[in-house]
């Protein structure tokens, strides 16, 4: 699956512990990444400054669902599950 144009859910819902240009401490879950553009594309896409965790992310129906709203819900649920794991 290719990334859905105009989605950006992976740049909002999950926490990212890696430093991001403009967010040296990473970003908390539910906070929009400063690199997410108004059209929901990443300003760092294809750039060496892009965090490895972001570059390694691959869109998948199980994670991204059928639309942006479902992706936000699925990613939020996964974030909650991993935060509550022992």
Structure description:
- This is YkgJ family cysteine cluster protein.
- The chain is mainly α and 86 residues long.
- 29% of the residues lie in helices and 0% in strands.
- The termini are far apart.
- The chain is built from 3 helices and no strands.
- The longest helix is centred in the C-terminal third of the chain and has 16 residues, at 68-83.
- The protein has one domain (9-84).
- The radius of gyration is 12 Å and the shape is globular.
> For the CA atoms, what is the radius of gyration?
12 Å
Structural class: mainly alpha
Number of domains: 1
Query: Tally the helices: what do you get?
Result: 3
Fraction in helix: 25-40%
Low-confidence stretches: none
- Cα distance spanning the termini: 32 Å
Main sheet record: none
Number of strands: 0
Quick check: average pLDDT?
A: 93
Strand content: under 5%
Write down the overall geometry: globular
Element order: H for helix, E for strand:
HHH
Task: Give keywords.
3 helices; globular; 86 residues
Q: Which helices and strands, and how do they pair?
A:
Layout: H1 52-56, H2 61-64, H3 68-83
Briefly characterize the structure:
By secondary structure, the protein is an all-alpha fold. The protein has helices at residues 52-56, 61-64, 68-83.
């Amino acid at each position: 699956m290719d990334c859905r144009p105009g989605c950006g859910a992976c740049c909002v819902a999950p926490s990212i512990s890696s430093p991001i240009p403009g967010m040296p401490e990473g970003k908390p879950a539910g906070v929009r990444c400063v690199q997410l553009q108004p059209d929901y594309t990443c300003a760092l896409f294809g750039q060496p400054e892009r965090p490895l965790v972001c570059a390694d992310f691959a869109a998948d129906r199980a994670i991204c669902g059928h639309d942006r709203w479902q992706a936000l819900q699925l990613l939020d649920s996964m974030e909650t599950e991993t935060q509550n794991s022992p």
